[in-house]
Amino acid sequence: MSQSTPSTSSSMFLIPAMPPPPGTQSNFTDPETNATTIRILNGLFLGLAFVLLLVRLFIRTTLPQNHKLGWDDWLCTVAVVASIVHTVLVYLVLELGYGRHFWDVQAISITHGKLVIFALVDMAYVVAVFLIKFSILLLYHRLFAIYAVSKRLIIVGYTSISLIMAGTLGNSIARVTVCTNIQTASTIPFCSGKNVNIVLIVVAVLNAVADFYILVIPVHRVAKIHTLRKKKAGVLVIFLGGLIACTMSLVRLAVITENLHSTDVLWNGSRVTPFTIIEMNLGIICSCMMFIPPFFTKSKVVIYSMKSALLSRTGMSLSKARSVESQIYTGEPQSQPQANTTPQQEVLEAWEKQTPDLELLAEVEASGVVHGH
Q: Which of 56, 127, 141, 164 has the most crowded Cβ, counting Cβ within 10 A?
C-alpha cells in the first residue's frame, strides 16, 4: 500500500487550476490581479449610492406637502441593501482568488464552498438589478400613472423585468445546485465556460434592452409636458443620467462577448465586474437624482435660518436678513413679512415656496383630459 510522501503532498500545492499558456509560469505568490480596481470602484459607487439614498429619504420625509415614503422609496432602500450584500460577497471572493488568472490559482484551493460563494455573487447581482429596476418603475408609476400610455408602458416594464429576473435567478440557482460539485461539474455541458458565457450574454442583452426601455418612459412623458423649455431641459437631464447606466450595460455585454470562448473564468469575470458595479449603483444614483435640487433648496433655507438666528442676536432685523438672502438667491427684493410671524414660520414659508413639488412632473395639461395621450 503506497503512502504519500511529504514531497508528494507539497507538490499538490504547485498544481494550477488550469495549465498556463505557453511561455507563462504560474504565480501563486504575487500574481497579477484586478482586485484593486474592483475594490476602489465598489467602495466609490456604493458610497455615492448610499449618500444619495439618504438625500432621497431626507427630502421625502421632510417635504412640507405632507409626503410620505412610497413603495418606490422602500424598494430603493432594499436595493441599496442588496448592493451592499453584493459588495460584501465581491470583497470575499477577491480574497479567494477572484481577479487572478486561473493558472495563478492552486487547484487544491478550489472547493465546493468557494464555488458556492462565487455563484452567490451572481445571484446577488440578479436580485439587486431587479430591485433597482422595479423601484425606478414604481417611481415612474407615482409620477406618470395618470397618463394612460405611460401607465401601460410601466406595466409592460413590470412584467418584462419580472420575467427576466425569474429566468436569470432560476439559472443561477441551477448553477449553485449542479455546478458546485467539483467531481461532476467538469463533465456537465451546462457548467462549461462557453455555455455559462452564452447565458450571461443572453441575460446581458435582455438587461440592456430593459434599461433603454425604462429610460424611454420618462423621456417620452417629460417631452410632452407643457412647461418652460429651460425647466423641461433640466428635468430631462436628470432622467437622461440613466443613459450612462445603459452605456455601462452595453460595455458589460461587449466584454462578456469578447471572452466567449475563454476558460480563464476568474480573470474574465473580474473584467466584467467593474462595469457590473457601475451599472448597478448608477441605477440607484439616477433614481435619486431628482431629489438633489430640492435638497439644495432646503439646504439654503437651513443656512438662512441659522444666519437669521445669528443676525437676530446682533440686532439685525429678520425682515432685513430675509431681504438680503432673497437678493442673493433670486436677485429680487423680498416682500415684508406679515405681522406676528415667527422666525420658524418664515423659514417654513420660504422652504415651501422654494421647494419644487415633485408631483408637478405629472402635471395635467390644460385640457384636463390626457388619458388618451
A: 56
Measured distance CA(278)–CA(275) in Å, rounded: 5
> What's residue 218's pLDDT?
79
* Nearest Cα to Cα of residue 123 among 159, 161, 163, 170: 170
- Give the percent of the chain with pLDDT over 70: 66
Residues 310-361 pLDDT 10s: 666 655 554 555 554 455 444 444 454 445 554 444 444 443 444 344 444 4
Contacts of 155 (CB under 8 A, 6+ apart): none
171-194 tens-digit pLDDT: 888 887 877 776 666 666 766 666
> Has domain 33-291 been given CATH number 1.20.1070.10?
yes
Helix axes 112-144, 71-95, angle to 10 degrees: 160
Written as nine digits, the cell of 294 is 430640492
pTM of the entire predicted model = 0.74
Per-domain residue ranges of the chain: 33-291, 295-362
Please answer whether residues 219 and 239 qualify as being in contact, where contact means their C-beta atoms are separated by less than 8 angstroms: yes
